[in-house]
Amino acid sequence: MGRVLRDLQRKCPKPGEVLQHLFSLANRILEEKKVDHHKVYSIHAPEVEYISKGEVHKRYEFGCKVVLVSTSKENWVVAADAIHGNPYDGHTLEQSIEQTERVAG
To answer: Of 1, 77, 83, 101, which has the maximum CB count within 10 A?
Structure first.
């Protein structure tokens, strides 16, 4: 990938905005180490994060956590939120309550 990237950068000295973004993403992938945080797991969706599940058969998932708040009787979803950064589930409760109050208020 490094050779192809250098060849493309040499042949296109003034890349457009989209190509420059792809060049910087490729450089980021080339420079990352095994122990680095905030790695690129998907070229098409670089915002994707890994979620450590702790299960033996399926240790990791990729994406972001989603919080859904539903009513207890009729099971209507009253709030939904995407949580980034892989926080502990118990730490997302306050943010979910605030969003539900904003929606219901």
So the answer is: 83
Number of folded domains in the chain?
Answer: 2
The DSSP line for 44-104 is: S-TT-EEEE---SS--EEEE-EEEEEE-TTT--EEEEEEE-S---GGGGHHHHHHHHHHHH
Residue 82 domain boundaries: 41-105
Confidence (pLDDT) at 105: 64
Same domain? For 70 and 98 the reply is: yes
Residues 25 and 56 in one domain: no
Q: Does the structure show a pLDDT above 70 at 96?
A: yes
51 and 32 in a single domain? The answer is no
- pTM for this structure? 0.53
CB 53 within 8 A of CB 61: yes
Are 15 and 45 within one domain?
no
Q: Sort strands 77-83 and 60-63 into parallel, antiparallel or unpaired.
A: unpaired
